[in-house]
Amino acid sequence: MTSIINIIDNILRSSLAGAWYLMVYYGLNPKMSYDIIISGRYVEFLSSIYNIYYDLFSISIIISSIIYLFYYSLGISKKVTGQVMRYIISVILIISSYMIFHYILIISKYIFMYLWNGTDWYSIFNASKISGYSGLTLLFLNGSYFTGIVILAFSLVVRQAILIIMAFIMPVSPIFILFPGAEKYFTRIIKIVTELSLMPVLTILSLYLMRFFPGDLPLQIGFIYASFILPGLLFRTISGFLRQASLFGMDASIMDYNYYSLIDYIEDRIPVDLNNVSGDEPFNDYMAGR
């Protein structure tokens, strides 16, 4: 039995370094975590579509603005002016949505590179440094370590795939603004993009602490699992405290913070209520949500 445990443990130990390398190269490496999304081949396809429809959208905004001012000045139809305003906002966001997506990633990458540079992330983990545990205990620890690395690598790769899909979804998502009550789906897409963009920043922050504990296997395992738990936990915890400390009278219990994210908080602070658009109110009152 002991020999079997030792064989399995040796296999796991020899696999750890390889799993770590693959996780860093395909998941954490800025070329894969950001550059492939910011400047991948699909970007040329999206740019060509934007070039085709940009002038058309611009003309439609001008025409819609004229229609809005005409109906608004005459006070003919509240329903028409409200829907035209929705259309104008939707088209403006369609034109600028990919730029928003692009700059969210660039800002996140800038923060990420500050932590990435100056550290050899491929050599932070060294299986040869781990010793001093009994056979069964070491088997359990190495198995937990290997599982954590695989889960982290899988999470980072799936993140890349989701963001590339979002690059195609985001330009058409402002269409939701045309329908009363559906604006929340657009803001949820913005939320997903922002949180996924910042995910590697929080992940690398947790992994950075591993370099200070090269021989402490249990603590390294803790940092590995924290690296993919921390992003979601941090977004929700910060959001919970912000909601509790809000000066806007938002009624939210600290026990409910798990159901919110930081972007939800920002969304609730946006002073625009498209459900209350009407033609007999000044434009500034409309933008203030009054």
UniProtKB/TrEMBL annotation:
The chain crosses the membrane at residues 12-28, 48-72, 84-112, 132-154, 161-179, 185-210, 222-242. Keywords: Membrane, Transmembrane, Transmembrane helix. It comes from the Archaea. This is Multipass membrane protein.
